[in-house]
Design brief:
alpha/beta
């Protein structure tokens, strides 16, 4: 199952994650992570122009080493001063990454797709030129996906949040696979929420306490780690092509790879995880956490 892992690289260029106490990863540690990943069949990197220095750091590693990675990047929000053709933005990313083309290119902010009438046509042009192999969307809500369905948009890749707690998009996984879409999932640890002490949750996340306690109980009873349960839950979904995990240290990557060895154990307790799905969007939508105060 390790081939289904992709590395999320936002931590390589910026501080990210509610449970990330270490901040941005130092460049030399990034290089150690990438080398280890390349030696262990992990060949997918997920980045974005807006991830701080992430693309630049990846480019430095690629220039110095012979590892071949499939890279997916994303268009920055077009209201951040960018104008004109998105090809110009992509060329900036390619320059940072020090490559001539990338595997995938995603629209990162759905409002840009809605407001920029020719944006998707520009994406298709990039694919036709061979600058990117596959195009698609990074989505946050079911309404966005349902709009794409209603407009009969043909896309190659869809990246969405998916975890023990957040299973909103899974109702459409079968349909997406029938369409030939690659399904990439992120936030399998819900940005670290699964690891927080349930007694120390901010006020606006207190309703997550019962779910975290329930997860801890299942982990104890099954003699599994929380990280192993969360990661393997996503890997075991037959419709998921790639599971994108954020990494902030080499030790963490090694631990995640070790977790995969417990996949059979997690497979045996899948039915115990059904009650962990959370419907409350104040909990499963991280952009709403900003107003949470301890």
């Amino acid at each position: 199952m390790i081939h289904k892992i992709g590395l999320g690289t936002v931590q390589f260029g910026a501080d990210y994650g509610i449970a990330n106490a270490n901040g941005k990863v130092e460049q030399e540690e990034v290089f150690r992570i990438l080398e280890y990943a390349g030696l262990h069949e992990i060949d997918f990197l997920d980045t974005a122009y807006s991830y701080g220095e992430s693309e630049k750091v990846l480019g430095e590693f690629i220039q110095r080493n012979n590892f071949l990675f499939n890279i997916i990047s994303k268009i920055p929000s077009l209201d951040q001063g960018f104008s004109g053709k998105i090809e110009e933005i992509l060329l900036k990313s390619l320059n940072c990454l020090k490559v001539k083309n990338i595997y995938g290119y995603l629209i990162h902010k759905f409002e840009d797709y809605v407001s920029q009438k020719d944006l998707w046509e520009q994406m298709k042009d990039l694919k036709a030129k061979g600058t990117v192999k596959r195009i698609g969307f990074s989505l946050y809500s079911l309404e966005e996906l349902e709009m794409l369905f209603s407009q009969n948009v043909q896309f190659d890749i869809l990246q969405v949040p998916f975890s023990l707690f957040d299973r909103r998009f899974s109702v459409y996984f079968k349909k997406l696979k029938a369409m030939g879409v690659e399904i990439h999932v992120r936030s399998v640890f819900l940005q670290g929420l699964a690891f927080l002490n349930p007694e120390d949750l901010p006020v606006n996340l207190r309703n997550a306490k019962e779910y975290i306690l329930r997860l801890r109980r299942i982990a104890f009873e099954s003699k599994s780690s929380i990280s192993s349960i969360c990661l393997n839950f996503a890997l075991l979904n037959p419709y998921v092509d790639k599971v994108i995990i954020g990494i902030d240290s080499l030790d963490q990557l090694k631990s995640n790879i070790e977790d995969i060895k417990s996949i059979k154990k997690v497979e045996r307790i899948l039915n115990m995880l059904d009650d962990l799905e959370i419907k409350d969007e104040e909990i499963i939508l991280p952009y709403k956490w900003a107003k949470a105060k301890a």
